[in-house]
Design brief:
With 216 residues, the protein is an alpha+beta fold. The chain is built from 4 helices and 13 strands. Strand 10 and strand 11 form a beta hairpin. The longest helix has 28 residues.
Length: 216
Amino acid sequence: MSSNDGKMLSLKKEGHIQEMATSNRLASCASRAVGLPQNERRWFIAFVGNNQEKAAARRLEGMDYEVYLPVQEVVSVWKDGRRKLRERIVLPNLLFLHLTELERKVVVALPFVKRFMVDRAGKVDAYNRHPLAVIPDGQMERFKFMLGQDEKEVSMEPLTLKTGDAVRIIRGSLAGLEGHVYQGNSGKSYVAVKLDFLGCAIAEVALTDVELIQHS
């Protein structure tokens, strides 16, 4: 056997091993899905590596998946007083993916996707597996709208923050957004939009710019 033939056999063997490994991972992932329809698209939360959010999002978009990476442009002030516009990732290590369960099984087998978030408070199945965390469409729409307004810096707070009245913003770049009013320790007022499993997205707002929807 020539050296070229040996190399060809080696490459074929490696390719077969990789194919088998991928098939095994897909089979394993299929067994972990709990109680989700196979063909309905939902917003899942995927974990990726540190500082790999943008690269992972580009690769998934290149595979025709719907991906949302929450980013905002913020101004950083250097020590010498210069100001620089930079892009800030709001939720490090996380990507939101709008997938069917069948698509999710393929995505979770990709080497740059670590895993999908599960609902730890959800009811486990007979094999003690938690259901996958799914973000409702309405919450995602409000979250994306809030982040799309560059004038308001958005931060994430735990769900334990105390919210008050349900309000609708009627003026400014966030006009139309609905959430709950919240007052921080500094005395400033914020509007908070709940995002299941992750907390609340908050942005500063003047109370004169909101109207009451209902009392909580």
